[in-house]
Input
Amino acid sequence: MCPIITQKAKHMSNSYYDPADLRKFGKITEWSEELGNKFFDYYGKVFEEGALSAREKSLIALAVAHVVKCPYCIDAYTKDGLQRGITKEEMMEAVHAGAAIESGATLVHGVQMMNKYNKLSM
Amino acid sequence: MEQSILPKTKKGSKKSLKAQENELAETNRQLEILNGGIFADGELPFFKDKIAEIGHFPLRPNKLEILQINVGYMCNQVCEHCHVDAGPDRKEIMTRETMQQCLEIIKNTEAHTLDLTGGAPEMNPDFRWFVEEAAKAGIKDFIVRSNLTIIRANKKYYDLPDFFKKHNVHVVSSMPHYTRGKTDKQRGDGVFDKSIKALQELNERGYGMPGSDLRLDLVYNPSGAFLPGDQEAMERDFKKALKEDFDIAFHNLFAITNLPISRFLDYLIASDNYEDYMYALVEAYNPSAVANVMCTNTISISWDGWLYDCDFNQMLDLKVASKVKHIKDYNEDILNDRNIIISQHCYGCTAGAGSSCQGTVA
Output
């Protein structure tokens, strides 16, 4: 077999998203150490207990993960929620909160459409 | 795709692995998995190498504090995560003769804690006799690990809360979640309601009440392929929910990580979670938990009197690396001068805040 193809097959899957890539997230620092470390420091700090509990932030992260449609983040924050004892009902409500804002964001543009329609119409 | 070293296995049986004649009932097969695959390939580091980095290999005991005695593998439940592979079909239980030998040890030990476990220890026909005799030794902390449902399983167990109180036994009970769904999924239908009733009965005797000397602690194991969250936060959530919904009080919650052995290993493989779980354990490795892992202050005794570094090594049949391997030759000084046997399952006790039968260690 061609060694280059074998090599490629080892590092690339046939899909844009590979669940195993989530484990390698930390490796982004290898190609830009300073920025990568700054990001992970910031990220870690954000999710510490603060004015909001780490539990509340985990649910916000889960909702946002769905809105930005990040499969890695959905895996990560479903697991994070389970670890924190968050129930599936709470998780689903968080997803609906995200979905409601996302659909609301679409629908509120309906006002722009109505304005434009009215302006152009006699 | 590469040939997997993992066995094909199916989920949700009500029998022990042993009764199913599942290949994972063989401890050598479990060790082959734990020592092979992603570890042998070099994808993940061996536990031995991780603790060598901080000068803890070979791992050595500190002062002996806890004698943990497993009085048998028989249990009224068949929990999916059970590292003992316990169940009604397990017939290995400690005889009174072996208990006699244990009593000699209990009278003379330096340990301040005696910890009876199983299976359901209460199902051993000599359990009450043993507790009565052991209580006379005046050991400081006398724990019985009760699965709660046993108290409601049969009329002959209904008086257990009174029996525990009479002998000032410290009750440590498993309770996977404060919601019915999660509890029953891990431990079987009806387990939640029976556990709630048992906790209320213990509370009625004064167990777990604020300021009470009758200690009642709960053990939380994750019901799935994930690690436990922060123990204090979980304790807050459990206390709030159990108080509000059922007027139940308890003292402390111990968050215990499921170790990848026996039925939990079977579950991980069947649900295709094994590799991710091992990655999660290794990623969560906390060097500061190593010095206090429970094998450094515990001796585990099996139903037939063999000695182990911990209950997990007992289930993997890894007897202590000492001249003294059985209670008939028991000698604490010789026993404490040994190297602790480790494998990759040990990552379960060093993940995050660490894990032991007494909860976090770091």
